[in-house]
């Protein structure tokens, strides 16, 4: 333990940026100043992160940088809330602030001219703050604060275009699905506190190691939260819809923050998961299923961003798979390379969408390699890294994960991961073929329509994507260029360092780690499967592909089992949303008819009683006299009869 | 000598007649007269029992009742006159403007 102020210093700049920009957003004269300020804040946070990196190296591999924020005592137990940085947090922080900064810088160009420029950057800064808080948490309480703030930040950013009903629906969906996960997670934390009387990660993990039943319950509950946050099967449904946010936000969500939080928390709580083989198996199965199904769904999407969204789902699945088989260093490695190439891909897609005046449908693109050579080169670099072609970044991390799955003896999961790699190659070839290769799409006069906010807002007309290309600012091209370079060299550069760097964390936690050194034959098998996927993609969607014409002719939303992604949305609508509506209808009627009815009956009773008593006091003298006489007669009769 | 039961019977008849008048008639003047009848049935009993027991207390009370009755009728008539001035018509059932 080594007390340090650096964790707090990392948090302050993005929070300050968010507060300053949001608080005075109307008074900013210059939009450019907002973007520069927001980016600078994240850059400062990145600087402090580098400082923390150096500090951590200086004090030694076993040390942890720690800041205690507050502590209190309940029932003789001491609870402490604070921040800490160890190698695992460090790894995440570098990506969060580093890639986060690049996305900020890119956004200064992408969001140029948006009337809500200030609001956008305030939210984006807030996102970086929330994610940094999450990864620096030293206990469950701080974690929950960061965790829910990340959820809120994603809610705000997904619904950034707040006048679009689809964006509103998407943000609510993301929030609700994450809330479901949070309920489970909080239940797990409550169970941990009830059983071990501590909220500290380290203490919980220590106690759970000698308590397999408790560890299993808590790990499974926390896993549901992680699955929701990371958009894994079966709680992945919010992620494709979340594409309603601005494109850099998608890059932020997918590459640097949000969805990787689940991977992080599983890695962070690894001693507990290893004490619970059931939970560990669940992690691996969820990951493998997400990896395969996400890749399969991506082959049938038409929105370029949705293809990438399902791709993220699939790649995060690999990270879960790695965690599930005990190769957490490989998971962290894939997290970093994925951040590079997925940010490059999303931001590259942003360039294409920007240039085509808001067009997102890949069937309306085609032939862009000649018109946008820079975007093509960078996107291709990201794709090669994603597919896992050596020597691009994704090759190293993905092969480590597959090797780990094999070494751990989960041969079925290994095969599923291998198949997913094949499908990854397939949908990437489709993306490449439809967007960049072949003939440009001919716009039929009747089918021409404006799409997207940028088209409508900027007054560009129906030649969406086929008029003059919108010029691309240097900030966007520059950032994508940097990310493309990282996608190319990131894997090879990091590969020798990942495991040694993260080792202290896992040694300290006495966690077993599966060896991830891939055998040559494993690499060759993977490459063969990828090659088969690429070949199939070329045959189907290449310049003369057999499916190319057919897909470009049919416009409209994708249909069928794959196009609707196995009907998960429809299923949830049927089993969760509709019953909830029915229940609320019933409750409303019960309230109106039964509860209100009883109250109305009571009120009516009082009114009737009042009216009856009122008639007795009608002011009619003879009625008073009759009452009096009746009373007298009754009393007289009583005395006469009984006395 | 007339037995006491005859006085009691007469007083009862007078009281019931007076009570019936109060309950059934709508003219305040008739009502006042009916009340007078009930007072008098009470007086009759007071005097009759006074004589029966050879005490003068009852006769004294009878005078007291007559005075109270006279006062009551004076107030009642004044009210009737006032009501008549306001409404040009006097009917007990109409007079319930003070009702709750």
UniProtKB/TrEMBL annotation, chain A:
Source organism, top-level taxon: Bacteria
Alphabetical UniProt keywords: Membrane, Transmembrane, Transmembrane helix
GO CC annotations, alphabetized: endomembrane system; membrane
GO molecular function: NADH dehydrogenase (ubiquinone) activity; NADH dehydrogenase activity
Domain NADH-Ubiquinone oxidoreductase (complex I) chain 5 N-terminal: 74-121
UniProt xrefs under InterPro entries: NADHpl_OxRdtase_5_subgr, ND/Mrp_TM, NU5C-like, Proton_antipo_N
Any Gene Ontology biological process: ATP synthesis coupled electron transport
Compartmental location: Endomembrane system; Membrane
Domain NADH:quinone oxidoreductase/Mrp antiporter transmembrane: from-to ranges: 137-424
Any coiled-coil regions, as ranges: none
Spans traversing the lipid bilayer: 27-54, 88-106, 126-158, 179-197, 217-239, 251-270, 276-298, 307-325, 331-353, 374-396, 411-429, 479-498, 518-541, 624-642
Entry membrane topology: Multi-pass membrane protein
NCBIfam families found in the cross-reference section: NDH_I_L, PRK06590.1
Recorded family membership: Belongs to the CPA3 antiporters (TC 2.A.63) subunit A family.
Name by which UniProt lists this protein: NADH-quinone oxidoreductase subunit L
Gene: nuoL
Automatic annotation (TrEMBL), chain B:
Native species: Caldinitratiruptor microaerophilus
Its biological purpose: NDH-1 shuttles electrons from NADH, via FMN and iron-sulfur (Fe-S) centers, to quinones in the respiratory chain. The immediate electron acceptor for the enzyme in this species is believed to be a menaquinone. Couples the redox reaction to proton translocation (for every two electrons transferred, four hydrogen ions are translocated across the cytoplasmic membrane), and thus conserves the redox energy in a proton gradient.
UniProt-listed PANTHER family: NADH DEHYDROGENASE SUBUNIT 4L-RELATED, NADH-UBIQUINONE OXIDOREDUCTASE SUBUNIT ND4L
Keyword Protease: no
Membrane topology: Multi-pass membrane protein
NCBIfam families for the chain: PRK05715.1-2, PRK05715.1-3
Transmembrane segments: 6-25, 37-54, 60-84
Family statement drawn from the similarity comment of this UniProt entry: Belongs to the complex I subunit 4L family.
Name the record gives this protein: NADH-quinone oxidoreductase subunit K
Gene it is expressed from: nuoK
One of the GO BP terms on file: ATP synthesis coupled electron transport
EC number(s) reported in the record: 7.1.1.-
MF-aspect GO terms: NADH dehydrogenase (quinone) (non-electrogenic) activity; quinone binding
Quaternary structure and partners: NDH-1 is composed of 14 different subunits. Subunits NuoA, H, J, K, L, M, N constitute the membrane sector of the complex.
Subcellular location: Cell membrane; Membrane
Catalytic activity from the UniProt record: a quinone + NADH + 5 H(+)(in) = a quinol + NAD(+) + 4 H(+)(out)
Broad class of where this protein is predominantly found: membrane
Record keywords, A-Z: Cell membrane, Membrane, NAD, Quinone, Translocase, Transmembrane, Transmembrane helix, Transport
A GO CC term assigned to this protein in UniProt: NADH dehydrogenase complex
Pfam family, one: Oxidored_q2
């Amino acid at each position: 333990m080594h007390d340090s102020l650096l964790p707090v210093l990392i948090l302050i700049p993005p929070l300050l940026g968010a507060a300053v920009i949001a608080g005075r957003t109307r008074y900013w004269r210059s939009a450019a100043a907002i973007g520069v300020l927001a980016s600078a804040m994240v850059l400062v946070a990145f600087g402090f992160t580098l400082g923390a990196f150096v500090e951590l190296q200086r004090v030694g591999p076993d040390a942890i940088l720690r800041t205690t924020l507050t502590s209190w005592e309940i029932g003789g137990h001491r609870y402490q809330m604070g921040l800490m940085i160890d190698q695992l947090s460090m790894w995440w922080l570098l990506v969060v602030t580093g890639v986060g900064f690049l996305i900020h810088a890119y956004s200064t160009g992408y969001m140029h001219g948006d009337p809500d420029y200030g609001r956008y950057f305030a939210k984006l800064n807030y996102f970086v703050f929330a994610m940094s808080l999450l990864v620096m948490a030293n206990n469950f309480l701080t974690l929950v604060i960061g965790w829910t703030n990340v959820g809120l930040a994603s809610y705000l950013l997904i619904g950034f275009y707040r006048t679009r009903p689809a964006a509103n629906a998407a943000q609510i969906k993301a929030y609700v699905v994450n809330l479901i996960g949070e309920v489970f997670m909080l239940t797990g934390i409550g169970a941990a506190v009830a059983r071990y009387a501590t909220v500290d990660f380290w203490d919980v993990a220590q106690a759970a190691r000698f308590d397999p039943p408790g560890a299993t319950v808590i790990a499974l509950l926390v896993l549901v939260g992680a699955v929701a946050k990371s958009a894994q099967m079966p709680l992945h449904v919010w992620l494709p819809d979340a594409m309603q946010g601005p494109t850099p936000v998608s890059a932020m969500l997918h590459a640097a923050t949000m969805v990787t939080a689940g991977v992080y928390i599983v890695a962070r709580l690894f001693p507990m998961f290893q004490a619970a083989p059931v939970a560990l198996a669940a992690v691996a199965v969820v990951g493998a299923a997400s990896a395969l199904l996400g890749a399969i769904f991506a082959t049938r999407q038409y929105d370029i961003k949705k293809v990438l969204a399902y791709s993220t789902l699939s790649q995060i699945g690999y990270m879960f798979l790695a965690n599930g088989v005990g190769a957490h260093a490989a998971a962290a490695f894939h997290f970093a390379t994925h951040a590079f190439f997925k940010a490059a891909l999303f931001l590259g897609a942003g360039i294409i969408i920007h240039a085509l005046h808001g067009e997102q449908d890949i069937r309306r693109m085609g032939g862009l390699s000649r018109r946008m050579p820079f975007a093509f080169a960078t996107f291709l670099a990201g794709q090669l890294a994603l597919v896992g072609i050596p020597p691009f970044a994704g090759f190293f991390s993905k092969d480590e994960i597959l090797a780990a799955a094999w070494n751990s003896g989960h041969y079925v999961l290994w095969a599923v991961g291998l198949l997913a790699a094949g499908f990854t190659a397939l949908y990437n070839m489709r993306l490449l073929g439809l967007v960049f290769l072949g003939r440009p799409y001919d716009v039929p006069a009747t089918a021409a329509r404006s799409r997207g906010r940028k088209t409508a807002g900027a007054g560009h007309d129906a030649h969406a994507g086929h008029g003059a290309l919108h010029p691309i600012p240097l900030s966007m091209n520059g950032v994508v260029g940097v990310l493309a370079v990282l996608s190319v060299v990131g894997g090879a550069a990091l590969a020798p360092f990942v495991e040694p760097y993260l080792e202290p964390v896992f040694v300290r936690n006495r966690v077993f780690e599966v060896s991830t050194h891939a055998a040559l034959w494993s690499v060759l098998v993977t490459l063969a499967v990828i090659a088969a996927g690429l070949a199939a993609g070329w045959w189907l969607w290449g310049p003369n592909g057999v499916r190319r014409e057919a897909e470009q002719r049919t416009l409209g939303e994708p249909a069928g089992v794959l196009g609707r992604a196995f009907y998960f949305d429809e299923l949830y609508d049927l089993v969760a949303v509709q019953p909830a509506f029915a229940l609320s209808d019933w409750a409303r009627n019960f309230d109106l008819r039964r509860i209100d009815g009883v109250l109305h009956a009571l009120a009516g009773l009082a009114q009737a009683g009042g009216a009856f008593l009122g008639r007795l006091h009608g002011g009619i003298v003879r009625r008073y006299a009759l009452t009096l006489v009746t009373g007298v007669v009754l009393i007289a009769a009583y005395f006469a009869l009984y006395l | 000598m007339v037995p006491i039961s005859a006085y009691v019977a007469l007083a009862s008849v007078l009281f019931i007649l007076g009570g019936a008048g109060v309950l059934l008639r709508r003219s305040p003047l008739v009502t006042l007269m009916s009340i007078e009848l009930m007072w008098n049935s009470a007086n009759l009993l007071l005097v009759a029992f006074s004589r029966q027991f050879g005490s003068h207390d009852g006769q004294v009370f009878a005078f007291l009742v007559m005075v109270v009755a006279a006062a009551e009728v004076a107030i009642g008539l004044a009210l009737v006159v006032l009501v008549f001035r306001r409404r040009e018509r006097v009917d007990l059932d109409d007079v319930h403007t003070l009702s709750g």
